[in-house]
Amino acid sequence: MKKSHIKQESEQRSSSGIEGGFLVVLGGGESGVGTALLGKAKGYDVFVSDKGKIKDKYKQVLIQNEIDWEDENHTESKILKADVVMKSPGIPDKVALIKQIRKAGITVVSEIEFASNFTEATLVGITGSNGKTTTATLTHHLLKQELNVGLAGNIGDSFAKQILEDDYPNYVLEISSFQLDDIIDFRPHIAVITNITPDHLDRYDYKFENYIESKFRITENQTEADYLIYDADDEVIVNHLKKCAVKAILLPFSLEKNIENGACLEKENIKITINNNQIIMPTSNLTLEGKHNVKNAMAASTVAHLLKIRKQTIRESLENFQGVEHRLEQVLKINKVQYINDSKATNVNATYYALESMGAPTIWIVGGVDKGNNYQELFSFVNEKVKAIICLGVNNEKLLNTFGNMVDVIVETQCMNEAVKIAYKLAETGDNVLLSPACASFDLFENYEDRGRQFKEAVRNL
């Protein structure tokens, strides 16, 4: 592995009698505290600074490990003395402090970048606008049957903490565009791009091209010895590939095209071919429903095939995978009405997949913080499948204007319990009640997990 800027700096300082140098961690959440622990173990002088309040469980970890920290404040004079700054993915570049740090010539990295310098593990990096959590979790499920593998990144325990405590020989990393924005040398052996649709454009100057380029950073350091797995039905990805120089071996997957090297659908079977080595699996046995999940299965199985997981193991693992919490999660069936938690659908494209997979009349709970959503691609599904809409958000005006004429019943509420009670009254035998918000959750909830758990609790209390 090539020597990174962080390792070089660390070694130079160690040889001059200064341990590791001064690492400032901005953000005292999972990734921040994990980075602080790893940084301290690697000889850095560490300071954690959070503009908000650090949760008690993380404060205790910092105190127990004698790591200097502050919350509800940023001491700029101290921060600007850093040799390396690891910033939480939630902090945008336009924040004045980040501009000052960059102006001072201080290296800014993400946790993924920092941590990857301290492991020789085989890295599988998975990004995309939708499906990355399911694909990452499914890939980990396939690999763990035969390999010692960690699951980290945007999911579970922090990557840095796992390197410190477990140092798995393999990692599956779910990676957001925000994490990719602050990489320098990070290089996954296998990269996966599930799809790219407009999302988080407020962080990218409302330019879709900037967001696309951010996603493609996952492959920028890859070599001819590495692999890029991608959706060949996604025009955005296909068009961007034509104009950017990717060194990695390309392994597309598709529901529509015949793929010679990669994965495709043939007579309702998933066919994966890599260097003439083939595996065929029936889609009828997949536990996950919907076309999008066939694609997620293709991507995950291609990774498993590359890493020499046995064909029988891949088949069995696809058949017993139970899915991801808050992603088309079947909660309960009450009076022959199925309640489905898809709180993780924080954009229109994710909700598109959810509505597409509905096989019964649906009462749809939607709303939250609109990220400049264009709901037009949902119109055909709403007309065909949705019998009532419950708007759950502080400001529901856009939803009311967009869908008011499409359904007989559209109501608004600002309380999850009330939304579920209204759905219960509207639902008839054989219906679905689907929470698939297409929006961020921060107007009424702590995050999408909080929103999903409140939905499940309200359903169980009916």
What does the secondary structure layout of this molecule look like, with pairings?
Layout: H1 5-15, E1 22-26, H2 30-41, E2 45-50, H3 56-64, E3 68-71, H4 76-79, E4 84-87, H5 96-103, E5 107-109, H6 111-116, E6 122-127, H7 132-143, E7 149-153, H8 159-165, E8 170-174, H9 177-181, E9 190-193, H10 208-216, E10 227-231, H11 235-243, E11 249-254, E12 262-266, E13 269-274, E14 277-282, H12 291-306, H13 311-320, E15 329-334, E16 337-341, H14 348-356, E17 362-366, H15 379-385, E18 386-392, H16 397-403, E19 409-413, H17 416-426, E20 432-435, H18 448-460
Parallel strand pairs: 1-2, 1-4, 2-3, 4-5, 6-8, 6-9, 7-8, 9-10, 10-11, 11-12, 16-20, 17-18, 17-20, 18-19
Antiparallel strand pairs: 12-13, 13-14, 15-16
Helix pairs in contact: 2-8, 7-12, 7-13, 17-18
Structure in words:
- The protein has helices spanning about 5-15, 30-40, 55-65, 75-80, 95-105, 110-115, 130-145, 160-165, 175-180, 210-215, 235-245, 290-305, 310-320, 350-355, 380-385, 395-405, 415-425, 450-460; strands at about 20-25, 45-50, 70, 85, 105-110, 120-125, 150-155, 170-175, 190-195, 225-230, 250-255, 260-265, 270-275, 275-280, 330-335, 335-340, 360-365, 385-390, 410-415, 430-435.
- About 35% of the residues lie in helices and about 20% in strands.
- It folds into three domains: about 20-110, NAD(P)-binding Rossmann-like Domain (Rossmann fold, 3-Layer(aba) Sandwich), CATH 3.40.50; about 120-320, Mur-like, catalytic domain (UDP-N-acetylmuramoyl-L-alanine:D-glutamate ligase, 3-Layer(aba) Sandwich), CATH 3.40.1190.10; about 330-460, Mur ligase, C-terminal domain (Protein-Tyrosine Phosphatase, Chain A, Alpha-Beta Complex), CATH 3.90.190.
- The strands form three sheets. Strands 7-8-6-9-10-11-12-13-14 form a nine-stranded mixed β-sheet, covered by helices on one side. A six-stranded mixed β-sheet has the order 15-16-20-17-18-19, sandwiched between helices.
- By secondary structure, it is α/β, with parallel strands linked by helices.
- Mean pLDDT is about 90; it is low at about 10-20.
- β12 (about 260-265) and β13 form a beta hairpin.
- Its main location: cytoplasm.
